[in-house]
Each structure stands twice: as C-alpha cells, then as structure tokens.
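Exercise 7. Given the encoded structure of a 211-residue chain, write a plausible sequence.
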C-alpha cells in the first residue's frame, strides 16, 4: 500500500529486455534521487509513476525492477528513460498524508489542459468512461502516483473530464510539471470507491435472488 505522497523524483536510466520474445518484459535501472534506500531490501515494493514494482537488485543510489509486458501495455512512463515519481511502500506506523493507494493503475487518462491559474495550476484530464463513475467532487484520485483532490467532474460522450488544482509545491516536487495537453497519465481510482461499488452490486444481486 501507498499514500500517493511522492517521496522523491528519480530517473529511469536504462531499459533492458528480459527476453527476445515480443511478449517479454523489461528490466528498469532506476536512479533513486533523494529517495532513502537504507531501509529497502530485495523484494520490497516501490511505486514508480503510480505503478507498484518489486525491487530485484539494489545498490547505492540505484535499484532495478522487472516490468511485465502486461504492465507496460497498461501504463505510461515506464518504457523509456526519464524522470519518475517514487514512493516506498507504506508502513503501518506511517502518517497517511494522501489516501490509501494500491499502486495498481486502473487506466490511462489524457491531459486536456495544464495551465497556471493564479499561484497554482489547473490540470484537466479526460478519463475513460468506465472510470468516470468512480470520480466525485472532492474525492481522491491518483495521477502518475500523486494523490490529488478532484475539483470538478463533467461526463462527456467520449469519457469523463475532471479538474484538479495543483499547488506550487506539488508542481515543484513531482513530475507533474512535465505535463502538457495530449500527454497520457496513469490513473488509479479511490480504493474505497471500488468496495462501495462491489457492496452495492452484491446487494442488488441478493435482492434480485430474493424476489
């Protein structure tokens, strides 16, 4: 589990294929930046751009993760060198500064607008229609591993557009400052919303069976 509070911005330095097959995954070599790796071991989880990955090798200032072809197909930002948001897995004694995040990307969104508004930035993202029902005013969403609060939601024919207000600190310390219209982003919906939907659908099914 994670909180969506980015601990450091690292960099994917190299990408190595794990096989010659077209379905083979890759191994990423990640420079950890300011992320403290002293309490990280082989097998631990680190979220990279919001996707939970397992550390397979580790040395001073760097770690490697293996990414399956399935993960590469369902995410963005893990298939080429560049800056990435990093967060170590949540410990039970840690403060929950963002919200409960699983590190499982639910879908890809597309940036519609990213522009300064006063001292902040407005970020608008078009989400797939199937994720729109999980987005709510003042609810939580994860964008490229960053826990954010939804300011508005608008359902459209080709999806759902939601807006976020980014304070200067968030823009400064994450990779969100590299966004621009047309860029795709990793999205994870609120974990609680999943369970609410499941409970409601299970209740409806039980009621139908009772009739």
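Solution.
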């Amino acid at each position: 589990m994670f909180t969506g509070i980015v601990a450091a911005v690292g960099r994917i330095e190299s990408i190595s294929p794990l096989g010659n097959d077209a379905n083979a995954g890759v191994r990423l070599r990640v420079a950890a930046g300011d992320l403290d790796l002293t309490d990280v071991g082989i097998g631990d989880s680190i979220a990279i751009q919001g996707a939970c990955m397992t550390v397979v090798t580790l040395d001073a200032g760097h770690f490697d993760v293996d990414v399956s072809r399935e993960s590469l197909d369902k995410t963005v930002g893990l298939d080429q060198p560049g800056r990435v948001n990093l967060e170590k897995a949540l410990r039970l004694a840690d403060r929950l500064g963002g919200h409960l995040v699983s590190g499982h990307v639910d879908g890809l969104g597309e940036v519609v607008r990213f522009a300064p508004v006063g001292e902040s930035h407005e970020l608008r993202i078009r989400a797939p229609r199937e994720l729109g029902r999980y987005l709510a005013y003042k609810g939580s969403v994860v964008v490229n591993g960053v826990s954010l609060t939804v300011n508005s939601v608008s359902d459209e024919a080709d999806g759902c557009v939601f807006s976020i207000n980014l304070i200067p600190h968030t823009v400064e310390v994450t990779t969100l400052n590299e966004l621009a219209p047309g860029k795709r982003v990793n999205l994870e919906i609120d974990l609680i919303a999943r369970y609410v939907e499941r409970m409601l659908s299970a209740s409806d099914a039980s009621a139908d069976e009772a009739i």
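Remark. The longest helix spans residues 191-210. Students should compare their own answers with the one above.
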